[in-house]
Design goal:
The protein is α/β, with parallel strands linked by helices and 481 residues long. The chain is built from 18 helices and 17 strands. It folds into three domains: 134 residues, Orthogonal Bundle (Fumarate Reductase Iron-sulfur Protein, Chain B, domain 2), CATH 1.10.1060; 161 residues, FAD/NAD(P)-binding domain (3-Layer(bba) Sandwich); 147 residues, FAD/NAD(P)-binding domain (3-Layer(bba) Sandwich).
Length: 481
């Protein structure tokens, strides 16, 4: 615990967000950590709760509450309150190999389970985690730690997102020689091309990748297994393979007019923008631009918010977000009790930016697209929508047409892309994810394991990291049997 009465003495004091109109002029991180005295004060709010739901990841009512990587949150909160930053880092790194990623991009289910929220509001756990790891890098406490002994075993990890990196890091520490194959031109997967740079700047990703390489992990980019890298080569050269290929097959919206030009999947839009940004600071023009356009984003999750933030930085003319859910209450309802993850109305950074730019929340709640409208040249010109009732049924007489020259589909994913799995003859389950033995990470192919979104479906970055760690342990046991 921190200070015995800290949660009563101090109110929650979260991140300091940069001015919305200023931050939309660049691609730098939108938030800044509070000063050290504020962080220590916030850490003191960690109470003597006896049952810390924050540090044990659970699924309640279909949502995650608590920390899936089992961070020792009360322990490092107390250490920060007392000013023992290096010891706090040592406790943090026992459970989380990449706190600089989760501290920036995780939705913080740990805070959803924080007991202090029953009194006033949860401890700012996510901010403190971010502060610990950034302080550790600044002070030089984070150093490469290659294994002392090598086993002579070789493992191929396919995919370099959070699951792939976590799996590779663990396998390397076991002493195995690990090669990570990434089909893109940069390492990081979702961390590089899925999450916009105003959430995780690229130097944060590159810093960790450099450290992993110094520890002995081999990274191969521009190498799509099943195409540039034959599957037979992996089977011959490696003792095991771990699939961390994500759930990148987007869910489509097949309504009339889908064939019109100017309708794009969210990840295509985000990937191209980030690649152009990293390659040339957008000078090459190899991206989908929202400049001067009426933009409609369809979807209500984090990816939709990322599209909003990106379109604003590209200087769009107008912006609307379709969300099929009604506007939620600002407080938990009786059907959503603690310690479930709080399903409440939130204003994310992208929506805040849109409000400052256009004077209103960009979301059209309880709204569904029913038709895409095109012009004479076959380009998207508008979207016809209809309001939904509480049962998600269309409300007659509520049709409306919205102008749009760019539509971004951010309505989720349907599992991993199937081509590699079909080549490897790996079974999939009813959700199109990789099928694994119950309670295991083993696939239907001998010596092949799967972890992260490829196995569990679209999920949180912390689940990807934990699955990567657990799959590595099982893979280690398999090749050392």
């Amino acid at each position: 615990m921190g200070k015995a009465t800290g949660f009563m003495d101090y109110a929650r004091n979260p991140l300091r967000y940069r001015d919305p109109l200023e931050r939309t002029k660049d691609w730098q991180e939108v938030a800044r950590l509070p000063d050290e005295d504020v962080l220590r004060e916030q850490a003191s709010r960690c109470m003597d709760c006896a049952v810390p739901f924050c540090q044990n990841g659970s699924t309640l009512a279909g949502m995650t509450t608590g920390c899936p990587v089992y961070n020792l949150i009360p322990e490092w909160n107390e250490l920060i309150y007392k000013g023992n930053w290096q010891e706090a880092y040592e406790r943090l790194r026992l459970t989380n190999p990449f706190p600089e990623f989760t501290g920036r991009a995780c939705p913080a289910p740990c805070e959803g389970g924080c007991v202090a929220s029953l009194y006033e509001s949860p401890v700012t756990i996510k901010n403190i985690e971010w502060a610990i790891i950034d302080r550790a890098f600044q002070e030089g406490w984070v150093r490469p730690a290659p294994p002392v002994l090598r086993t002579g075993k070789k493992v191929a990890v396919i995919g370099s997102g959070p699951a792939g990196l976590a799996c590779a890091a663990e396998l390397n520490q076991y002493g195995h020689s690990v090669t990570v194959f990434e089909r893109a031109d940069r390492i990081g997967g979702l961390l590089t091309y899925g999450i916009p740079k105003m959430k995780i700047e690229q130097h944060v990703v590159d810093r960790r990748v450099k450290l992993l390489a110094e520890e002995g992990i081999r990274f191969v980019t521009g190498a799509e297994v099943g195409k540039q890298i034959p599957i037979e080569q992996l089977q011959t050269e490696y003792d095991a393979v771990v699939l961390c290929i994500g759930a990148t097959r987007p869910r489509d919206l097949t309504i009339p007019g889908r064939e019109h030009q100017g309708i794009h999947f969210a990840m295509e839009y985000l990937h191209l923008n980030t690649k152009s940004l990293l390659d040339s600071n957008l000078a090459d023009g190899n991206y989908i631009s929202a400049q001067g356009l009426d933009v409609i984003v369809i979807g209500g999750g984090d990816t939709a918010t990322d599209c909003i933030s990106t379109a604003l930085r590209q200087d769009c003319k107008s912006l609307v977000q379709f969300d099929i859910y009604a506007k939620r209450s600002a407080e938990r309802g009786n059907e959503n009790p603690w310690p479930q993850y709080p399903v409440i109305h939130k204003l994310d950074s992208g929506q805040e930016e849109a409000m400052k730019r256009f004077g209103k929340d960009p979301r059209a709640f309880a709204t569904s697209a029913i038709e895409f409208l095109g012009d004479a040249s076959g380009k998207i010109a508008g979207v016809r929508s209809q309001a939904l009732n509480a049962s998600k049924e269309a409300v007659p007489g509520t049709e409306r047409v919205w102008p749009a020259q760019l539509v971004l589909l951010a309505i989720g994913f349907q599992g991993p892309e199937p081509e590699l799995l079909e080549q490897m003859q790996i079974k999939r389950n009813t959700r199109s994810a990789v099928s694994t033995v119950a309670g295991s990470y083993r696939t239907s192919a001998n010596g092949v394991f799967a972890a992260g979104d490829a196995r569990r479906g679209q999920s949180l970055i912390v689940w990807a990291i934990q699955e990567g760690k657990e799959a590595a342990k099982e893979c280690h046991q398999y090749i050392m049997r």
